[in-house]
């Protein structure tokens, strides 16, 4: 009986330590800010055009994007115009949302009988902006734009050194005078060589894995299950080098692990979390509770974590979103204390 009580105390201590670790990571300043803001990423960028048909024709016929939704024309009342700094005499607004390939959508605004300024801001004016489009071959893209009589503002510039070494870019103008940009860095940027904790998101990441295969965004159910099983191996692996190698097989470079209280970005932050978890609960392990569920490019895993005496000290569920053969986002759900 005494041995049994001692074992129970050990298990309780292990479970408390594990829960304390989750609480510790949940209350860091960075984690709290991310949780409070609730912002995941950029949904769209907006741009005003003088002629809606002209704008849509350029984005669709020249750049190859696809208009998807339309809102309006919507008459705007006086209070809305005042709050949003719109001339009182300007008419209704029509808005079209354009699918711009991989990345944020483009929201195109056009105001009937607009009384706003007809002069584009200069590049150094407050509020001046541009949209940059990624291309794997800037010279070919530039040749194509020229064939469509698009005005090019100079020649491509290759950054020779610094954080953006290896990046080429050049500006061009739309028919209504807005400035846009072509940008390319097929071999990455200089800062990536220093193995930063966070990698800037890039459309090129969606094509570099499995680019030689048709429909490379789609992976089979068996492949997804294998990756999820390796995910469990990552969280149980105590050798940092082996764990890092496993992460590179399973996780995208810019992976986000999203808990209800914090967000971890990239290998380094997730590695730090795993290492801290293992130090706090040295004898605990993660094991699957149910079979892995797969739905297209997503999956869910029910798991438990604990010692051999109490393997379910902590339970939860992970939801995986796969892009280009790797886990791009990992949503972690930890069950309430039993």
From TrEMBL:
Residues 1-33 form the signal peptide. Keywords: Metal-binding, Signal. The keyword Nucleus does not apply. PROSITE patterns: VOC (PS51819). It comes from the Bacteria. Residues 41-185 form the VOC domain. Pfam families: Glyoxalase. PANTHER family: BLR8189 PROTEIN (PTHR43048:SF6), METHYLMALONYL-COA EPIMERASE (PTHR43048). This is Glyoxalase. It comes from Flavobacterium hungaricum.
